[in-house]
Design goal:
The strands form four sheets. Strands 8-1-10-9 form a four-stranded mixed β-sheet. The protein has a two-stranded antiparallel sheet with strand order 2-3. The protein has a two-stranded antiparallel ribbon with strand order 4-5. The protein has helices spanning 2-33, 64-77, 112-115, 144-148, 174-178, 217-220, 227-231, 247-254, and strands spanning 53-58, 107-110, 133-136, 154-156, 162-164, 185-186, 210-211, 236-240, 257-258, 270-273. The longest helix has 32 residues, at 2-33. It starts with a helix and ends with a strand. The protein has eight helices and ten strands.
């Protein structure tokens, strides 16, 4: 009797399982017959594409004014906080003052001996001691930060851009320890009170999240050049390193260039004309 009841139960359960499995198939077929039921993804025909994006910085065209314009354009458009400003007292009441030394930066200027410690020379030309060298994420071909990230919050796209998913970041800062260029910063506190004017076209970050340059991937997707390129007055060129006919490849063929800490094997995608 027990065996018969068990067999009956399994038979009914099997029929139910088949019915449940068939429902999604039927729903999918119904959706396919009514195209409007599924969202349609369209590619932006104006988007800029590359097999491997790279950047070229002509240091001879950089002045203090141009450097400031580049940094300002990048940081304002990406809601990078400025911890030197006073937050809106009404909107952010009770916000504690910032400790000295806290900063977030996506692109900044360094002295030559800090940017290129492995290229220091006793008889280095005097001009290099005074030139502002812009530094940022190098979007390395072999990025150690990607290997160090345990949650894949940092990853390299097929086009070579090393980018972040801020929602996946758990704040372990392994990527910061792995990056030999100091290109990443950690939000020890909520950065939002320290943004003078929020740009609604780019997401703000939260406390406990690492951030860095994304090569203006959101602008490339719209067919626009990065903010730093537009503000550089010709000092910065971004293009496809794999395309022999691209502007960046022509410039690399015409000029002597250097890269930061090249001996580490990370294969930086940012070049400097010196």
């Amino acid at each position: 009797m027990m065996i018969k009841s068990r067999r009956s139960f399994l038979k009914v359960a099997g029929i139910a399982a088949i019915g449940m499995g068939a429902a999604p198939v039927m729903n999918l077929a119904a959706s396919e017959s009514h195209g409007s039921a599924l969202p349609k993804m369209e590619k932006n025909e104006e988007a800029l594409h590359a097999k491997r994006w790279g950047m070229l910085i002509d240091t001879s065209k950089l002045t203090d004014e141009v450097v400031e314009a580049i940094k300002d354009a990048c940081h304002k458009s990406h809601n990078v906080p400025d911890f030197t400003i006073e937050p809106d007292a009404e909107k952010y009441s009770g916000v504690r003052p910032v400790r000295e030394g806290q900063e977030i930066k996506w692109i900044w200027d360094e002295h030559f001996h800090n940017a290129f410690p492995d290229k220091e020379d006793e008889f280095l030309a005097e001009k290099f001691h005074h030139l502002p060298f812009l530094v940022t994420c190098n979007h390395c071909k072999n990025p150690p930060c990607v290997q160090a990230c345990p949650t894949q919050a940092t990853f390299k796209r097929e086009d070579g851009i090393v980018i972040m998913d801020y929602h996946r970041c758990i704040g372990c800062r392994f990527c910061m320890a792995a990056c030999p260029y100091g290109s990443r910063n950690f939000n020890f506190r909520d950065p939002r009170p320290f943004i003078e004017e929020t740009d609604p076209d780019f997401p703000t970050r939260t406390k406990g999240v690492v951030e860095k340059c994304n090569l203006c991937a959101e602008r490339l997707a719209k067919g626009e050049q990065p903010h730093c390129v537009e503000a550089s007055e010709g000092a910065i060129v971004v293009g496809d390193l794999e395309d022999p006919e691209s502007e960046i490849r022509h410039l690399l063929a015409e000029h002597y260039t250097i890269r930061r800490k090249q001996s580490l094997g990370t294969e930086p995608s940012v070049y400097y004309i010196v």
